[in-house]
Write a structure and sequence with these properties.
Layout lengths: L2 H23 L13 E2 L38 H8 L4 E5 L3 E6 L4 E11 L8 E5 L8 E9 L15 E2 L10 E6 L4 E9 L4 E10 L5 E12 L13 E6 L2 E6 H6 L3 E7 L2 E5 L3 E6 L5 E11 L2 E9 L3 E3 L4 E12 L2 H10 L15 H18 L2 H15 L1 H16 L1 H10 L4 H15 L8 H19 L42 H16 L6 H17 L5 H7 L1
Antiparallel strand pairs: 1-14, 2-3, 3-4, 4-5, 6-11, 7-8, 8-9, 9-10, 10-20, 11-18, 11-19, 12-13, 12-15, 14-17, 15-16, 16-20, 17-18
Length: 564
């Protein structure tokens, strides 16, 4: 093999690694993939009444109270605005081992939830994660359920301003609550909320017809967000509307819904639909035996962007003296894999675990994470689990790596012969390449064998990065010393002498202790390998430890520990 080919192989491998990570790490210009949709049409005009003009269409949530926020501002409600909105209507308290919040009796909607197990930062006094917020301008995020009438139906149906009556008590895993409302025209509406010890609500809607004529109504559920929420905008992470409908994962980023004035409609038997953040999920789960029409939509109203995911079921007819009922579920919480898989199995929800963005290569990523989780169950520290995992990977790849090491040793022994050939045929490049190829064949040596261990580890490297980035189980997991979050970069920096100088270096200079350890170990490993015969290739390999030190400096500390 010629020196030129050696250089080409090395350059290609380096370019693939550097360019791939640069693209993945680029926040400023994320690539937004366009998933396939069943149908697409302009969003309908905002509905001012809960009943739509046609059957099979969930109502649009009315605009929340106006605030100073514009459509371009970050959708985060202030503490004062949220408190005011919570005090505007009577409420039923919600209390579970993992959730705290309240249920509004006005509109009978779920619009106030915090996750007590998780906090905003690693600081001990950091507030818990706020998931749902009531209609109070930008940042409103809530779920609603109920019934809508068909075309031409003129019935008094529950609206966002309807005041429901409760049977009393807190909503807890041991105590469901039932809300009732009578429309004064012979229809009595009942909505029962139950919650488990995790993040799953069960919502049962019933209508009793005491009138003299049959009534046909269509069940619905929707979850809505007012104002575009803050997003990370990473290429490898989906944030926005998503669901598994008609057996297929559907994903729509907020930007896609807004820029394309999108309305995605999918006919499905069962399935689920909602919104995902990096670690948090809201998901509507209708009766899995029901044929539904699910939508993901955007519209502008009151100077705010409005995003909604919803489903509408088929018509239910309540004869005089009879009742109709439907039961669905609503997930609101953290995307913990074990919980999602458990709900998927117990409720027969298709591919519920896909709410975690394991990516196209989940055939590698998902088993890798489960293996890490298994190790962690025995060592109770994800940093130690990553180290044990690294040893396991090295053992698994040892037969391949060993052949590579043997070939590299042969190359090291051949260095004197290669230098003699270079001196002998210094003026005849073609003859030099011919003689070197003959030498390699005769001694059964491969000049690019040193790249093999790196190549076979690249898929594992990518998969581990994905695991560290998207799984909540890795969020805020400490290692030892200054590493208090393995999913975040090493907080130290060489350029302020690791905190001794009162200066906060820019991101590209955040080269902490572990990136330096990684760079030094990479340099030492190169010293143990035979140097490439071509001086250009040799110099390029010499600079790679420096490049990787800066490149991985802002990557999750857990990934840098693995590479080191």
């Amino acid at each position: 093999m010629s020196d030129q080919l050696n250089v080409l192989v090395a350059i290609v491998l380096s370019a693939v690694i550097l360019i791939a990570w640069q693209v993945w790490w680029d926040r400023s210009h994320p690539v937004v993939p366009k998933p396939a949709v069943t149908s697409s049409a302009p969003a309908s005009a905002p509905a001012t009444e809960p009943a739509p003009a046609a059957p099979g269409v969930a109502p649009a949530a009315p605009a929340p109270a106006a605030t100073s926020s514009s459509a371009n501002e970050v959708a985060v409600p202030t503490v004062a605005a949220r408190a005011t909105a919570l005090a505007a209507a009577p409420r039923i308290q919600i209390e579970t081992p993992l959730l705290k919040g309240s249920l509004s009796l006005r509109g009978a909607r779920l619009d106030d939830l915090t996750l007590t197990k998780y906090r905003e930062t690693i600081a001990p006094d950091s507030p818990p994660i706020t998931l749902l917020s009531p209609a109070a301008g930008a940042g409103a995020y809530f779920a609603d359920f109920g019934w809508v009438g068909g075309a031409g139906t003129k019935l008094a149906l529950p609206s966002p301003d309807t005041d429901w009556t409760s049977d009393g008590g807190k909503l807890t895993p041991d105590h469901p609550v039932t809300l009732t409302w009578d429309n004064g025209e012979g229809l009595r509406f009942e909505r029962k909320f139950a919650v488990d010890a995790g993040y799953m609500f069960t919502v049962t809607d019933s209508v009793a017809n005491a009138g003299t004529a049959p009534v046909t109504l269509f069940p619905y559920g929707f979850v809505t967000r007012w104002g575009t929420p803050p997003t990370l905008n990473y290429y490898i992470l989906h944030e926005g509307a998503l669901g598994v409908l008609d057996g297929t994962l559907k994903e729509e980023k907020y930007k896609t819904l807004k820029d394309d004035d999108h309305l995605v409609t999918v006919k499905s038997k069962g399935g689920w639909v909602g919104f995902t953040d990096k670690y948090w999920l809201t998901a509507l789960i209708p009766d899995q035996t029901m044929d539904v029409s699910a939508r993901m939509s955007w519209r502008a109203e009151g100077g705010l962007d409005h995003y909604q995911s919803d489903w509408t079921g088929p018509g239910f007819t309540a004869a005089p003296g009879a009742a109709i009922s439907t039961t669905g579920h609503f997930f609101a919480g953290a995307k913990e894999l074990a919980l999602l898989e458990g709900y998927g199995a117990s409720l027969n929800v298709p591919n519920f675990y896909l709410a975690i963005d394991f990516g196209w290569f989940r055939v590698i990523t998902l088993p890798l994470f489960k293996f890490l989780r298994f190790i962690h169950a025995h060592v109770s520290n994800f940093g130690i689990a990553i180290m044990i995992f690294t040893v396991c990977i090295r053992v698994a790849f040892f037969p391949i790596a060993n052949r590579s090491f043997q070939s590299m040793q042969k190359m090291k022994l051949l260095q004197p012969e290669i230098k003699k050939l270079q001196e002998r045929y210094a003026d005849d490049r073609a003859k030099l390449n011919q003689e070197m190829m003959a030498l390699y064949r005769r001694e059964k040596a491969n000049p690019v064998s040193g790249c093999l261990p790196l190549i076979i580890q690249i898929p594992v490297f990518f998969a581990l990065y994905k695991v560290l980035f998207v799984t909540i189980e890795m969020r805020q997991q400490p290692f030892f010393g200054w590493i208090r979050d393995l999913s975040a970069p090493d907080p130290t920096s060489l350029f302020n002498l690791f905190g001794l100088i009162p200066w906060d270096p820019p991101g590209f200079l955040q080269i902490g202790v572990w990136p330096l350890i990684m760079g030094v170990t990479m340099w030492l490993q190169q010293k143990l390998n035979p140097q490439p015969p071509d001086p250009v290739q040799a110099r390029m390999f010499q600079v790679l430890p420096v490049v990787f030190t800066f490149l991985l400096g802002r990557f999750p500390a857990g990934l840098v520990i693995y590479w080191a």
